[in-house]
Amino acid sequence: MTARRWLVLLAAVLAAALTARLGFWQLDRAAQKLALQAAIDGQAHKPALGNADLAGADLHRRVELRGTWVPERTVWLDNRPMDGRAGFYVVTPLRLAGRADAILVQRGWAPRHAADRTQLPPLATPAGEVDVQGRLAASPSRLYDLGAGQAGAIRQNLDPAAFAQETGLALLPMTVVQTAAGSDDALLRNWPAPDFGLHKHYGYAFQWFALCALILILYVWFQLVRPRLRGRPS
């Protein structure tokens, strides 16, 4: 082989090895996401935690809490569609009974006014102690946001730590996504299932493996098969 052919062979081998490695990396990422999904499903089958069990609790664990709503601190997270309709996720702090702290509760979904997006729908928030069933999450639903933190009732995102400083509430560093419907409101709770992007990882893996195969096929054709067909030594 000439130096040029050795160089082409080296380039083909390196490119094929790199694309194959990237394909296996995407498969590994998909396996990690599957393991995470299995862990979340496992948390859902464990007994629900109460007010006294929140310290060090794992995310996605079921909870059954008792406390008092803080309705004046309700936040409406905008641009949250549900069942094909535009609306808000309603988040209200819950002062935990028997404790000095509170926790944010993503209570449910409410529709947005068709003509005036600043007009909030009516919301029934009972006084006195209530029971809330749900699952733990790191924070309320988040969207990509280029701007700085917002204030007011309608916001794009809500950071628990910043909201605690803003309100003076002793908020736990977690959120409850309410799952059981209450008799006190008409909020929807058809929460979307977590999207782990498995199809994306499998799609990327297929593309990398296909590119690897294409590199090898092109090398074999142009460096081995085609010269032989033309009667030249390879």
TrEMBL record:
PROSITE patterns: SURF1. The keyword Transferase does not apply. It holds the Pfam family SURF1. Keywords: Cell membrane, Membrane, Transmembrane, Transmembrane helix. It is found in: Cell membrane; Membrane. CDD domains: SURF1. Its main location: membrane. The chain crosses the membrane at residues 202-222. InterPro entries: Surf1/Shy1, Surf1/Surf4. Belongs to the SURF1 family. This is SURF1-like protein.
